[in-house]
Design a protein that fits this description.
Layout (H helix, E strand, L loop, with lengths): L8 E5 L4 H12 L3 E6 L2 H13 L4 E5 L5 H10 L5 E4 L14 H10 L1 H18 L2 E6 L12 H20 L5 E8 L5 H14 L23 H12 L10 E4 L7
Parallel strand pairs: 1-2, 1-4, 2-3, 4-5, 5-6, 6-7
């Protein structure tokens, strides 16, 4: 099926690794030109070089999206895109007693206010063109709330509500906004956590896959970043224009088990 994404301009934040890089690759495979954004310029360029080696048109822009200034600079440099994928942001775990107010401010500055501000900037431009799509990669922590992830529970829940409200308003101007809530995904970060545990428990970090309990995951395994990427790309297609104001829970039904 032709998803009609060839030649589209796609901006992906947090694009140097994990779900962001997988999403950029998936859009590029459909013929889109992608711009990767993250803080680390060296990591960004390495990621882009890998995409270019696959025949994907990719460029980069290093920016600190935890600040109004950084987000404004990104919009000034790349104001016209067809698809914006908000993906940058990592919120630390911990219960209310274990985290500080600084942890709240730091986690929300990049992810919560980062997503909201970029939506505000890009929706205005997309409305002028009467076309455009925004995908917010949020997280199941805002649905299946846990006291051990209280900063993410509150932040992700706020983004879910924001995405639903904004996506209900924008179709009047030809713009779509929707979200995806991934559950635990086998990113580099998750791999590092398992490697650390393997080094501690097994004395060999290379044996980290032995610590993945199939019974703990739907389908007997963690989700792959490529699966989230495929969802983002498919739902961004003009063929499903009537999708807006929706946040899709992508957890293999694990929330209910």
């Amino acid at each position: 099926m032709d998803l009609e994404l060839g030649g589209k301009k796609v901006l992906v934040t947090g694009g140097s690794k994990g779900i962001g890089l997988a999403t950029a690759r998936a859009f590029g495979a459909e013929g889109a030109a992608v711009t990767l954004v993250a803080r680390n310029a060296e990591a960004l360029e390495a990621a882009a070089e890998g995409l270019r080696a696959e025949g994907i048109a990719a460029d980069t822009l290093a920016a600190d999206l935890s600040t109004d200034t950084g987000r404004g600079a990104l919009f000034s440099a790349v104001p016209d895109v067809d698809v914006l994928v908000n993906n940058a942001g990592a919120i630390r775990s911990g219960s209310l007693a274990e985290v500080s107010m600084e942890d709240f401010h730091e986690g929300w500055a990049l992810k919560v206010f980062g997503y909201i501000h970029l939506c505000k900037l890009y929706v205005a431009r997309m409305r002028e063109k009467r076309a455009g799509t925004i995908v917010n990669i949020i997280g199941m922590g805002g649905r299946a709330t846990r006291p051990s992830y209280i900063i993410g529970a509150a932040g992700n829940a706020a983004l879910i509500g924001f995405t639903q409200a904004l996506g209900a308003e924008t179709p009047a101007d030809g713009v779509r906004v929707f979200g995806i809530n991934p559950s635990a995904t086998l990113t580099d970060r998750m791999g590092r956590n398992y490697r650390g545990r393997a080094a501690e428990q097994l004395g060999d970090e290379s044996r980290w896959r032995e610590l993945i309990d199939p019974a703990a995951f739907p389908f007997g395994r963690p989700k792959r970043p490529e699966e989230v990427a495929a969802m983002a790309v498919m739902l961004s297609s003009p063929k499903v224009q009537y999708l807006s104001g929706t946040v899709v829970d992508m957890d293999g039904g694990g929330r209910w088990t």
